[in-house]
Amino acid sequence: MTAADRLNQFEPVIAEVITILDRHTNQLKQLTIATGQIITAISQQGDSISFLLREQVMIKGDIAEIKGEVAEIKGEVAGIKAGQAGLESKIVGLDSKIDQVLQFLQKSEQ
Known about the structure:
Blueprint: H1 3-109
């Protein structure tokens, strides 16, 4: 076999290997693109999760603040109720004094 015959035998094999390499190169490009898209999606979801966690912490703080304010309001309401009870007892006392004054005036008119 001559050198030219050997080259003629290698040419189809080399062409087939180059075709396979081209196909693998295209597949690697597609995998690279898909991996980039997945990384972008994961990054966006990570950002969304981070945002939600920050919001949750802020909401927890707001809820704690609201609970404190509600407790403060309950204390104020309890104070108002105590003041109201005191006023009611004073009104009852005034009613009895007014009744006494009226009775005194009625006796003095007779």
